[in-house]
Specification:
heterodimer, A: 250 residues, alpha/beta, Rossmann fold, six-stranded mixed sheet, B: 288 residues, mainly alpha, 11 helices, 2 strands, 1% strand, globular
Chain lengths: 250, 288
Amino acid sequence: MHKIESKNVELYYGSFHALKGINMTIEKNTVTALIGPSGCGKSTFLRLFNRMNDLIDGVRIEGSCLIDGKDIYSKEVRIEELRKRVGMVFQKPNPFPKTIFENVAYGLRVNGISHATFIEERVERSLKQAALWDEVKDKLKKSAMELSGGQQQRLCIARALAIEPSVILMDEPASALDPISTAKIEELIYELKSQYTIMIVTHNMQQAGRVSDTTAFFYLGELVEYDSTKKIFTNPTEIRTQNYITGRFG
Amino acid sequence: MDINTRKRLAENTAFWVFRILSLGVIGILFSILGFILSKGIGVVNWDFITKMPEDGMTKGGIYPAIIGTLYLIAGSMLFAFPIGLMSGIYTNEYAKEGFIKRFIKLMTSNLAGIPSIVFGLFGMALFVNGMGFGDSIIAGSLTLGLLVLPIIIRTTEESLKAIDNSFRHASLALGATKLQTIRRVTLPMAMPNIITGLILSIGRVSGETAPILFTVAAYFLPKLPTSMYDQVMALPYHLYVISTSGTNIAESRSMAYGTAVVLILIVLILNLAANALRRYLGKKYKIN
């Protein structure tokens, strides 16, 4: 069974056809990069899997999206439950204006966990996983807004990890960061792969090349090519893929 | 004159016109305050704010009117703040873009445009007579509450709208429900600005005469209320009475200024308190 699967997914924003018949399968504990020019549908595709597109008025979705073989758009699925299993990291670091500790504890609290020692342990573990613990362990009660952009983004990753998702969606997680912070995030993605299945949208070809196992190239709402990252970057089948990754358009 | 000189001249003229006009506004505020204070501060002393009125309201204090106004402020806020807050939350967080939302917004604006005397008349018909509360604190509070409801709804809406969606998305993506997101993230962040609406409302409520005229205000009642079904005196109405229809208008003139001073001070103190609360919350949920 594939970890993630999309079958003939069509998505419309009103009359705009944003995703056209997307078929794709993703295996467990891999990193999949979604690349393509702005407006090609890659972020929309990413947001299918924690149903963030549902927040937009006038969205219509056809086809099916499966995680662990189960249709996440079926009527029995509770969205909050799904989002607990599928974490997300956004383009702009968006910690809450709360303490560092409370940011990481947030997902636990809203999911009904109130046991203090359990929360403390989980916060520590998540911050360690996100390679942030050493930098913040003495100021957990300080506001998350005092952290640098790169630290904030790792905090957002820790926040997503705290509720133990099995899938993590990343929407250009390093595009607002400096090169050093970006390198840290990429390192982190590489380490997280052993425990999580990761999908990452990126505009940065080198980044896709460095962090991902498989790469999907989207163009005008279509999945043009989906293959191992190595193949996509060295010997793409489609001429459009080749033009894009060599920088001829995008 | 070359173009650069002309541009600089226009720039300077605009700057000074705007600056002088803004300073003029401050000047008006200070003249009002200075005028009222200089005329009224002389009669304001401990007895004035703690004693009952005497001798046909030409002597003694304004204690019952102060208490009455404080009751009306508290009563109207207890009623209007939660309702206004919830309906502001509904329009901004729940209602979908479309006819219903536009209709609610339009009606809220219309409500804000209704003259206060009409609220008074409506309050008399509904609360005093219709619901049988009689002239009472509850009838007056409800009427004043209706009057400021649009202010609270509108500021709640605007304050929530100012919160970046990325915070909502972050919360929802962690499995929070909409209500949890509002309670734990959006509302606390919006609260400092919502309190600005509260301040405006308190100022409005404490100063309005027309809505309480037919619903609660007593001409002369030298005792304190014992329940919310009692009438009370209130500062703005008391001011009106002793300036226009008192037993001896000339003699009670200084009392009128004194009353105005007390009214201004009450609003000032409540504003300062609300401001302190706003600053405290603002610090707690500061972005950047």
